[in-house]
Amino acid sequence: MKLTILGSGTSTGVPRLGGEFGAEWGLCDPDEPRNRRTRVSILLQNEAGGTVLVDTPTDLRQQLLACDVHRIDAVFWTHDHADHCHGIDDLRPLRYGRAGPIQGYAASETVRRLRQRFGYVFAGQHGYPTLVTLDNLETVRICEGFGVGHVQMPHGPAQSTGFTFDYNGKTVGYATDFSEITGGMVNLFYGCDVLVVDCLRREPHPTHAHLAMALELVSVTRCKRAVLTHLDKSMDYATLSAEVPEHVSVAYDGMVVDLEELAR
Questions:
Q1: Element (H, E) at 42
Q2: Where is the Metallo-beta-lactamase domain (predicted)?
Q3: Are 245 and 212 in contact (CB under 8 A)?
Q4: Does residue 154 have a cis peptide bond before it, meaning omega lies within 30 degrees of 0?
Q5: If we measure between CA atoms, which residue out of 32, 84, 83, 79 comes closest to residue 235?
Q6: SS3 218
């Protein structure tokens, strides 16, 4: 199984628009390429040929081109906030040449909101085919060879879905956009080979995990390796990398983790 961090930034990306010179880098070194962050998403691939995408962020087209991804078999959405779903139309070219729609899954409330906002994607119209089928997460246990687990996580007043993907005895956990650690989260992510975890900034935030909370989740789940993502402009790659434990890495766009290599 191979994990690719397609995007590692917060909702505005890094650098953020609106600075004095049109790009606001905050504490991030603009000369460090790993500080240039698009909105969060991940890709999972297995040796059976299955390719699964989590979220369709605003920068999806750019991310897939940068990582040379030309096929998606299934999409899982964490929630319906703009930075996680408003790139959904970039799935349209990936429907070309397929015998049927791409599989799509989300929690029931996210399904409702996505259908309301992007009806043409899931039903087709005016002679255009359905791009994605959208089903409730309760209907899926295995998808494209991956075992799938999920849990609802507090995200301020809303909720986000955390996922695990299992293949060939290895597990990747994905926990982004959460503001509290629950027992259900600990149970789902416990013992993951790799846990990708929300880490917006160092100071507490009302709807996201900050550094201390992210490291707490890593500790209580006893995951073998963790990758910090959803990073804002205060989280310089080199500075943060120097202060986290050895088994914790800082995500960057295009980062690849090969789980078979980790086991060697």
A1: strand 41-45
A2: 38-230
A3: no
A4: no
A5: 32
A6: helix
